[in-house]
Amino acid sequence: MTEPTRTAAPVLEIRDLRLELQAGSRRALPVLDGVSLRVGKGEIVGIVGESGSGKSVLSLAVLGLLPPAIRIAGGEILNKDGQFLNRLGENRLRRIRGKEIAMIFQDPMSSLNPGLTVGRQVAEVIRLHEACSRREAEERTVAMFRKVGLPRPESLLREYPHRLSGGMRQRVMIATAASCRPELLIADEPTTALDVTIQAQILQLMKKLREEDGTSVLLISHDLGLVSGICDRIAVMYAGRIVEQGTAAEVLRRPGHPYTAGLLASIPLPSKKGSKLTPIAGSVPALHERGAGCTFASRCGYATERCRREAPAYHRAGDSHIAACHLLAEEGGSAHAVR
């Protein structure tokens, strides 16, 4: 896969990653097909796509948390030191999780232990990765609660998750993930089920962590509009493949893939007031429905017989912008093909 122009040195690099689902005695089904992605130091990179595109399973592969039925069939996952994460044993991965790479899961209520106070849960992560006393871990927990904007942080230590609002629980999750100042935060749909005001606050908090600690963020979302205001670069996923990636400005201003254009057309914006939104017809194909051609062909108004037969290569759509679409090749590999 050709990549856009490289920026800062990566804290995470994924090279041609392929995942397969082994469903009983049947043939293995492709879950991810040749995914390549880099996250530079201090970057916020967004991965966008509908449910079923492969976004969350990609994050689980990075952390070595894939379910038993899914295996890595090819490719590499490297950290900032050039270590191949997909070759490390569980003991070594356990030391990396939370310390070098941490994850903010989609649903804090199911991710937090309902039987432990939130203060104890954060403090345990700190003590697991760093040599400090219980008191020191508690003091650092209070400092983290304050940093992520939680009210009355000292008394909050003794609260249980069910006594907190959804926004407060998500802030506790961010405090947990950021407590050991990891190089990379993976945020999987971190604003799901939160109102618009709280969503904005959570995104601003991630920007604050980047600015104050140099933390890189891999932000996973189904909402292209939500990530547009925070990400430096955007990768668009569809049916297990990255179909487009580049700087946020280029991808949003001049999408090179019909799927990206369709996502943009379906976003409700003030500028579209009074206009009808245009949803993308159909749905993401199931694993057993994915053939050799372009996986978006069945939903694409530009599709030709070639699209159904042959998977498109990546072509330049801008200076730091690529997309996998036959239309780009037909227009010389650099023109904006999607009108």
Q: Main attributes?
A:
339 residues, 8-stranded mixed beta sheet, 22% strand
Task: Give a written overview of the molecule.
This protein is of the alpha/beta class and 339 residues long. The chain is 32% helix and 22% strand. It contains 13 helices and eleven strands. The protein has an eight-stranded mixed beta sheet, sandwiched between helices. The chain is globular, with a radius of gyration of 21 Å. The C terminus is likely disordered.
- Arithmetic mean pLDDT: 90
- Helices, by number, come to 13
Which residues sit in consecutive blocks of at least 5 with pLDDT less than 50? 333-339
> Order of helices and strands, N to C?
EEEHEHEHHHHHEHEHEEHHHEEH
How many angstroms does the end-to-end distance come to?
A: 25 Å
- Could you tell me the strand content as a percent range? 15-25%
Level of helix content? 25-40%
Overall strand count: 11
> What overall form do the CA principal axes indicate?
globular
Strand adjacency order, main sheet: 5-6-7-3-8-9-11-10
Cα Rg: 21 Å
Structural class: alpha/beta
The main pleated sheet reads as: 8 strands, mixed
